[in-house]
Specification:
Layout: E1 2-4, H1 20-43, H2 45-55, H3 60-66, H4 70-89, E2 92-94, H5 95-121, H6 136-139, H7 160-175, H8 180-196, H9 202-230
């Protein structure tokens, strides 16, 4: 199955597109994650970090799992630009290539969005990682420092790793049903690793998930809308 590039002639084969209920489910999931993040801040974040610090922080295999989405930070924009160029000059591309194009763009935009939100919220980290930053585990600090100038030291919220893995997997899962179980496994492993290593608060992970779902679903919805209007 192929899909048209933006400058291509219409083709009779429609792309794999999610139904409106699927998109609504994605947006409701993002809202649920955001609401759970608000609940987690006062009641869940500190007990979970205390438990992780005692039982799971520093375990090597968990650290490896936590970094599962790391290649996405590097590959997102090159993938989006290269496949985008091919889409521009060719009449059609396989659906999987269009999916990778959308996923690359979603990850790239989500990465920029999470950087901006980190600066806005200025949240302290669970542990001391950067520039001898004050942290909960070392200094008992648990706060948001809105628009703080010391960006790197106060940028825990939202989780970048959860943002990018959800942006990527949301595109895959919405466009290809067969990918939903692998995507769910990748999300679960990333969330477990980031929280069990005390890299992030639970609410950081939930907020990152919400952001990633929103960006990923918007990319899919925008492509679906363009294709439908093009062939109406």
């Amino acid at each position: 199955m192929t899909e048209p590039a933006p400058n291509a002639e219409p083709t009779p084969s429609p792309p794999p597109s999610p139904s409106s209920p699927c998109l609504r489910t994605a947006w409701l999931s993002a809202l649920a994650c955001l609401l759970l993040a608000l609940v987690a801040i006062p009641w869940i974040d500190r007990p979970v970090v205390d438990f992780a610090h005692t039982h799971t922080q520093g375990i090597r295999w968990i650290q490896i799992i936590a970094e599962l989405p790391s290649p996405l930070f590097v590959l997102a924009w090159p993938t989006f630009l290269i496949i985008g160029a091919v889409l521009y000059f060719r009449r059609t591309l396989p659906s999987w290539a269009v999916t990778l194009w959308l996923a690359g763009g979603a990850v790239g935009v989500a990465s920029l969005a999470k950087q901006a939100l980190k600066f806005v919220f200025g949240r302290t980290w669970p542990d001391t990682w950067i520039r001898d930053n004050s942290s909960y585990l070392r200094d008992g600090v648990f706060e948001f420092k809105l628009f703080d100038g010391n960006y790197a030291a106060y940028s825990s919220f939202p989780s970048g790793h959860l943002t990018v893995i959800l942006a990527f997997t949301t595109v895959l899962a919405l466009r290809h049903r067969v990918m939903r179980v692998p995507c769910a496994i990748a999300i679960a492993l990333t969330a477990f690793g980031q929280i069990a290593c005390a890299y992030h608060w639970t609410s950081d992970a939930l907020a990152g998930a919400a952001l990633g779902i929103v960006v990923g679903s918007l990319f899919v919805a925008a492509w679906q809308s363009w294709w439908a209007n093009r062939h109406a």
